[in-house]
Amino acid sequence: MIYTRAISLTNFLVASSALGFQVFVLYPWHKQLDDSFEDLKKEHVRVLAAVKEVASEVDPNSRKGAKDSILGRLGMGFGTGSHLNSVTAALASSLPSTGGSKTGMSVSELARFAFAGAFCCSFTHGILTPVDVVKTRVQLEPAKYNRGLVGGLRQIVSADGAGALLTGFGPTVMGYFLQGAFKFGGYEFFKRQAGDYLGPERAAANHNAVYLASSATAELIGDVFLCPFEAVRIRLVSQPTYAPGMVSGLAKMANSEGLAGLYSGFTPIVLKQVPYTMATFVVYEKAIDVAYKLIDKTTASNMTLSGVNLGCGLVAGMAAAIVSQPADTVLSKINKEKGAPGEGIARRIFNIVTALGVRGSYTGIGPRLVMVGGMTAVQFGIYGHIQRVWFPPLVDGVCN
């Protein structure tokens, strides 16, 4: 039964993703390419006209005079000031107007970033559902599931059958599809906006702050959409008989516990996901900088670049797992069952943290290091490959 539901859900997601890809990505992208090509033709005609005009006025034996005159006509004269600044300013002034934004992101660009992030997050979380099931059960029942990742897998299969390893597959895929869209798409959007607002020099000087603020804001928005699905996933894993699937689980939880039940884990999920995402992107960007000091990305093959993305993603994922593990354990505990009558969310978190202690808060860190490290590596590998296809001039790490 569970395999039938999984196949049906997968088919639905594939069909929905394909339709969304055509409507929100391919069509806007084609329109943008046509517009860009027309702008390029106009600019080409303008440059040729300037060159032809200058060629008729300047002594053919004076190449320097011709060069200076042509550049002057185009707004790129070489004065005594900074050569780089004058050329950069001239190029910026010659570009088509974008409504006052220096590098503002178009809707089609944002849609492509969001779709790439949605795909890589839902795919990686989906295929690692069995590991997530073991991790969650270890966190909820450490005395019972105390034999590590492989031992936990065997225990679950022996007690509940192999189908139990796919418990929560539906809410996992759907929740992280939405979260990934806002996480990656939002990160690129807010990073671009910060660069426009601060300017290139200030943005470069404060790049760590830009990475942190952009990732935190994007993740916070993504968590709003992820939280209900994560609550249902944990309830299904901890109570296999709670509901037969995602839709029925969401309906049952909404009817019995209301919106407060679906978002009972919002605080711990924010405390887990926001530091996790901040650590992921900052460590990844730093790792990419180090990698590209050792490897020339302009001459490296696609396989090498994918390997760099995978390796840097692995390092980032393991760092993020360590940072966010305590909040992940609290999240599993708080979504296991309803709180006591009159017990507020702050009190529940305090009681759980007090009972766990430092050592208890890192219960299940082994399976989670495997899951998060591998998952993040694959995410950045897929995401980096998609960006090299869609934005070849922009790719540097995630996208600079």
From TrEMBL:
Record bears the keyword Transport: yes
A Gene Ontology term for the protein's cellular component: mitochondrial inner membrane
Transmembrane annotation, as ranges: 12-30
UniProtKB keywords: Membrane, Mitochondrion, Mitochondrion inner membrane, Repeat, Transmembrane, Transmembrane helix, Transport
Record's keyword annotation contains Membrane: yes
Matches recorded under InterPro entries: MCP, MCP_dom_sf, MCP_transmembrane, SLC25A3/Pic2/Mir1-like
GO molecular function: phosphate transmembrane transporter activity
Record-linked Pfam families: Mito_carr
GO biological process entries: mitochondrial phosphate ion transmembrane transport
Chief place of localization: mitochondrion
Subcellular localization(s) per the UniProt record: Mitochondrion inner membrane
Gene3D superfamilies for this protein: Mitochondrial carrier domain (1.50.40.10)
Solcar repeats: 108-193, 206-290, 301-389
Membrane topology value: Multi-pass membrane protein
Family designation: Belongs to the mitochondrial carrier (TC 2.A.29) family.
UniProt protein name: Mitochondrial phosphate carrier protein
Organism this protein belongs to: Pseudomassariella vexata
